UniProtKB/TrEMBL annotation:
It comes from Trametes cubensis. Its EC number is 3.2.1.52. It is an enzyme of class 3 (hydrolase). The lineage of its organism: Eukaryota, Fungi, Dikarya, Basidiomycota, Agaricomycotina. Belongs to the glycosyl hydrolase 20 family. GO terms for molecular function: beta-N-acetylhexosaminidase activity. This is beta-N-acetylhexosaminidase. InterPro entries: Beta_hexosaminidase_sua/sub, GH, GH20_Enzymes, Glyco_hydro_20_cat, Hex-like_dom2, HEX_bac_N. PANTHER family: BETA-N-ACETYLHEXOSAMINIDASE, PUTATIVE (AFU_ORTHOLOGUE AFUA_2G00640)-RELATED. Residues 1-18 form the signal peptide. The active site is at residue 341. One of its GO terms (biological process) is carbohydrate metabolic process. It catalyses: Hydrolysis of terminal non-reducing N-acetyl-D-hexosamine residues in N-acetyl-beta-D-hexosaminides. Residues 178-508 form the Glycoside hydrolase family 20 catalytic domain. It comes from the Eukaryota.
């Protein structure tokens, strides 16, 4: 279990030590009481799990310890870690080398801001010889290990040769129970392994939920509501859970190649759980149900192909059969049934359906449900208070302060603060990442957003951080324009900084703790921690051969495999190419794990979509091509003509109203040169970091 040097992307940022000896990190630590000395991580370190509690929890304390060991080696390249050791915990006893203990103390009692008990708090006790991470439950210990890793990463990024933790005691716990992000996977396909990597990354910032919106359709009013129009039958709609062959609901999945098998989803859930994140799945009904009605048109509400007819006798039994198939897949104690934007004139039908599904899912599995905030005008019925309401909109949604006062449990997903949209949004309504000005100082009083803040302008619509019914917050990234609008990595680029700033605010709030980060402290720490986040490589960072050069392959090639699977932007990929004049438009110039470049029209392929540059390579001579990419765009310079760069674009249908042009960012396809029937010559390939 030895590790070569881990690669850290160093920047000019520097994070100064706080007055207590800890570097400001994301999220901030509630309290640290320093003492004398420090615990230095020498090249040989032992991680010890208290054998009394090793098997407690699922994942267990030992499971978390093994992941922590891998992450420690990932971040600190100079350490050698022996296998994680099981041993009784005896305070003050070490093994002759620096020792990190992980243990439980069931007498510890951590509180959320509302006074409710949480298992996610932790204590860290640091002396010169040992470092002890303890909590009332394994999950709290896990978050304590994230604190240690961040401190280590910040020290190394600041040029320290060795990592040392100041002696003293840390006590920390989250302010709110729910701290999550939602990803619209209904309108955009994501591979399960990518979702697992997102969990690993988000966990580094103490996010504890990933809400997967797993069924939906593109919205085009002319197709959906045009009189006599049957365009709804062909409008893109998707259901991402793939039933086994022969299942009675097999026809529900129109895009089998864009759905998760049970094994794929289970593996992804396990990856997330091993990093402290619960996956909350959503199957959206009775609105947003076009994919169900394309399968069974008889369930459709007349004149609204994306709505279910709840009064039709077979509708609710069909929805129950869908949940029957997939509830055994889901490890979370809660699921979302969506239930937003339904016909207000059918309020009682809607409320009856929501309450019936709540009772049904609870009776089958013991799970509770969530629904998006709604405002169904009924004078005789109300949604059960067993259901959590995820508020998202003023004024179409119920007013959250009133819901809280009535005794409903509420999760804050208010779109004014917490909505993003893939690549663009109608009229620029939503930003590409969480609005930093709004998050840090846009709330009433200029104190910044926190989960108790629902309105940026009206304090009467906000509540206190200790509201007993406020469960926390989830920010959302929608994909209204479908698969072709973005690549999976572009979605990560939108999420990366947002996850971190949300992690701070959802854990520590804005004005409760004196130790909460300032914006300047966050801005200094974030790029360093983003670069160091262990267990995944969503930045697609690679170690150069020399300088900033990743590949340098002079001479002519037909098919060649490299050691570099993919390189994230910014980069420059240069080469010369002469296709065969007999088969000039087939085959690959380059391929990698995230993208491919086809010779035909210089077409990039990513996330299953094709993006043509529209340039036809001549067959009688070599053409020089330089591809430049950043996280915002990708363009080509042909034969050195820098005055006329050619950009790769996508064309997005904005709700059937107009077409919008967007730039595309692609990872460099660097795993293989040539292939897939390409005939011709490629020469002088060079891939460098920086655009």
């Amino acid at each position: 279990m030895f590790l070569g040097a881990a690669l850290l992307v160093l920047t000019t940022c520097s994070v100064a030590l706080g007055s207590d000896g800890l570097k400001p990190q994301i999220p901030s630590v509630a309290s640290f009481k320093p003492s004398r000395g420090s615990f230095e991580l020498s090249p040989v370190v032992q991680i010890v799990v208290d054998s009394k509690y090793a098997s407690h929890g699922s994942p267990s304390l030992f499971d978390f310890a093994e992941t922590f060991s891998d992450d420690l080696k990932d971040i600190i390249g100079y350490v050698s870690l022996a296998p994680v050791l099981l041993s009784p915990f005896v305070p003050g006893i070490t093994f002759g080398i620096p020792t990190i203990y992980l243990t439980l103390d069931t007498s510890l009692n951590y509180k959320l801001f509302n006074g409710k008990t949480t298992d996610e708090g932790y204590d860290i006790e640091v002396s010169q010889d040992s470092l002890i991470v303890k909590s009332s439950a394994p999950l709290g210990v896990w978050w304590g290990t994230r604190t240690l890793l961040q401190q280590a990463a910040l020290q190394l990024a600041d040029g320290e040769k060795r990592v040392s933790f100041p002696a003293g005691s840390i006590t920390d716990s989250p302010g709110w129970e729910v701290r999550g992000f939602m990803l619209d996977a209904g309108r955009h396909w994501f591979d399960a392994s990518f979702l697992g990597d997102l969990c690993i990354y988000a966990s580094f910032f103490k996010i504890n939920e990933m809400h997967l919106h797993a069924s939906d359709n593109l919205w085009n009013p002319a197709f959906l509501y045009g009189e006599g129009n049957e365009g709804w039958k062909h409008l893109y709609a998707a259901f991402r859970f793939q039933p086994p062959p022969g299942s009675p609901i097999d026809g529900l999945v129109p895009h089998k190649n864009e759905s998760w098998t049970k094994q794929q989803f289970t593996t992804m859930q396990e990856t997330c759980a091993k990093h402290g994140i619960t996956v909350v799945p959503e199957i959206d009904t009775p609105g947003h149900s076009l994919v169900i009605n394309q399968w069974k048109p008889e369930l459709m509400e007349n004149g609204a192909p994306d709505h279910l007819n709840l009064s039709y006798p077979e509708t609710i039994p069909t929805i129950k059969s869908i949940w029957d198939e997939f509830l055994p897949w889901f490890s979370a104690s809660e699921v979302s049934i969506g239930a937003d934007e339904y016909d207000a004139s059918l309020a009682n039908d809607y409320i009856s359906f929501v309450n019936e599904m709540s009772s049904y899912i609870s009776s089958k599995t013991g799970k509770s449900i969530r629904i998006w905030g709604t405002n169904e005008p009924s004078k005789t019925m109300s949604v059960s208070k067993d259901i959590t309401i995820q508020h998202w909109d003023f004024p179409g949604d119920d007013i959250p302060i009133q819901l809280l006062q009535k005794g409903y449990r509420v999760i804050n997903s208010e779109q004014a603060f917490l909505y993003l949209d893939g690549k663009t949004s109608e009229g620029g309504q939503f930003p590409q990442e969480l609005d930093q000005d709004l998050i840090w100082a846009g709330a009433p009083g200029g104190k910044g957003w926190a989960p108790n803040i629902f309105s940026p302008s009206d304090p009467s619509n906000n509540t206190s951080p200790d509201d007993p019914n406020l469960r926390g917050s989830i920010f959302a990234l929608w994909n209204d324009w479908g698969n072709n609008a973005t690549t999976a990595l572009e979605i990560y680029y939108q999420l990366a900084r947002s996850v971190a700033v949300f992690g701070e605010k959802a854990w520590a709030g804005s004005d409760v703790r004196q130790t909460a980060l300032t914006r300047a402290q966050f801005d200094a720490a974030y790029p360093l921690l983003n670069a160091a986040a262990p267990g995944q490589n969503l930045n697609r960072v690679v170690k150069p051969l020399y300088g900033n050069v990743v590949l340098d392959l002079p001479g002519t090639h037909s098919v060649l495999t490299t050691h570099v699977p993919s390189v994230g932007p910014p980069y420059t990929l240069s080469f010369s190419v002469m296709p065969d004049d007999k088969t000039p438009s087939t085959g690959l110039l380059f391929s990698g794990t995230d993208s491919k470049l086809h010779v035909a029209n210089l077409t990039f392929e990513a996330t299953g979509q094709l993006y043509a540059l529209g340039y036809v390579l001549p067959t009688h001579r070599f053409t020089t091509v330089e591809i430049h990419a950043t996280r915002e765009y990708t363009y080509a310079v042909i034969d050195g003509d820098e005055a006329h760069p050619r950009y790769w674009h996508t064309l997005m249908d904005i709700w059937g109203d107009y077409m919008a042009l967007g730039n595309m960012s692609f990872a460099a396809p660097s795993a293989q040169i040539g292939g897939d029937g390409f005939r011709g010559k490629i020469k002088d390939v060079k891939l460098t970091l920086g655009a």
